[in-house]
Design the sequence.
């Protein structure tokens, strides 16, 4: 069920005259400035930089008759503060781009195929380390060339990871690629506690080992 | 990254995703995108970090004074603390798992249900714990999660006088390491 639109936001969007709108904007700032400043401080180290970004965000939120804020109201799903954090972060990126030119690739990544390939390869590297892939035995090849064997194992692991449910791929990515603590992964994938995340992670790692076993790669 | 960049999840969709208000199809598509998109994962992680609700407390935390008293008790009665040898286990599944000590109730101690308090040694910052209490049949009579190192039994849990009960605490750290106290025993004083 959707949360109601916050009263200050509703008042601002519904205001029929400038005074009412201005008062509602002031109330909105009282309510959300702390959160917005938290966002800007986490994206830039200096106080001045954070304040510049804060001012930029406010300008952009007011722009074009609160166009961005109306987008949240029109959709009406989720928590307003969640939406506001994401919008503020992206406006910080825009501000950086306006003042310093385009960002480096890692801050401006897209899910293009090439990047996806890199991401998948990275994830496979992290997961390979987690399940100690190098120590597993390959029953089909008693004395293979080490490099060839390593690459074959990684290819097998890549296939097994690709066959996982997308939610489990996201779990592995968050845990091993992004190094997100278990307690913070839960809300990101819809699990309620770090224990549930831990259990799910254990199950997924076991599933990976089973999948590798099907490729003839087993634990010593 | 423009706000409406079609290559990224929209802020509206991220808000809906984290509130579980997406359709099944949207949910799956969002997760598929997140697997491949570092920028959107960062947005989601920041949104979670900055808007998290205060942790709900579904148990009765004892607080600092009681914890201090318990530590004092532990120091005064070192022999009464949980078995440091870590030999107790709850059967298959915990062999080789790192063990940590309980403080009270003392092993096999008869205790009044009104004064029953569970206390264990900390496994360090960031540790979370699950306490499980079971009866002589192995049926779980109460379990609770906490980041504290102490819990008291809620009033609704009925432990019978003269009966024996078993308890253990599992700890989980943010780096996914886990440890356990192994099974401990106490009885309710008639």
Sequence:
């Amino acid at each position: 069920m959707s949360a109601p639109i916050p009263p200050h936001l509703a008042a601002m969007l519904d205001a029929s005259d400038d005074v009412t709108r201005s008062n509602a904007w002031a109330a909105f700032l009282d309510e959300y400035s702390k959160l917005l400043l938290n966002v800007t401080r986490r994206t830039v180290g200096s106080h001045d930089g954070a304040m510049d970004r804060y001012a930029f965000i406010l300008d952009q939120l007011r722009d074009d008759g609160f166009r961005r804020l109306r987008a949240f109201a029109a959709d009406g799903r989720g928590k307003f503060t969640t939406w506001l954090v994401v919008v503020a972060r992206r406006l910080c990126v825009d501000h950086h781009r306006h003042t310093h030119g385009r960002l480096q690739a890692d801050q401006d990544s897209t899910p293009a195929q090439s990047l996806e390939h890199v991401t998948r390869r990275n994830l496979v590297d992290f997961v390979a380390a987690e399940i100690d892939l190098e120590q597993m035995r390959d029953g089909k090849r008693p004395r293979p060339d080490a490099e060839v064997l390593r690459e074959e194992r990684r290819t097998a692991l890549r296939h097994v990871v690709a066959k996982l449910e997308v939610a489990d791929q996201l779990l592995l990515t968050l845990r091993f690629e992004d190094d997100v603590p278990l307690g913070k992964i839960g809300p990101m994938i819809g699990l309620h506690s770090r224990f549930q995340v831990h259990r799910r992670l254990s199950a997924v790692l076991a599933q990976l080992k089973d999948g590798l076993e099907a490729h003839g790669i087993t634990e010593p | 990254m423009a706000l409406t960049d079609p290559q990224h999840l929209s802020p509206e969709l991220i808000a809906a995703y984290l509130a579980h208000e997406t359709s099944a199809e949207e949910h799956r598509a969002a997760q598929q995108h997140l697997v491949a998109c570092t920028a959107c994962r960062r947005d989601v992680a920041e949104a979670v970090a900055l808007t998290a609700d205060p942790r709900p407390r579904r148990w009765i935390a004892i607080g600092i004074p009681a914890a201090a008293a318990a530590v004092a008790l532990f120091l005064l009665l070192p022999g009464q603390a949980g078995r440091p040898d870590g030999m107790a286990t709850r059967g298959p599944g915990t062999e080789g798992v790192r063990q940590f000590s309980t403080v009270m109730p003392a092993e096999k101690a008869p205790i009044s249900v009104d004064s029953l308090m569970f206390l264990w040694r900390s496994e360090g910052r960031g540790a979370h714990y699950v306490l499980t209490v079971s009866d002589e049949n192995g049926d779980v009579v109460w379990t609770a999660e906490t980041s504290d190192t102490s819990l008291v039994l809620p009033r609704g849990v009925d432990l019978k006088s003269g009966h024996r009960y078993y308890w253990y605490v599992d700890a989980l750290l943010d780096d996914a390491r886990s440890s356990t106290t192994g099974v401990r025993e106490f009885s309710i004083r008639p």
Remarks:
- The CA atoms of residues 89 and 182 of chain B lie 4 Å apart.
- Chain B has two domains: 11-51, 64-188.
- Helices of chain B lie at 11-18, 24-36, 38-51, 64-76.
- Residues 55-92 of chain B have pLDDT under 50 and may be disordered.
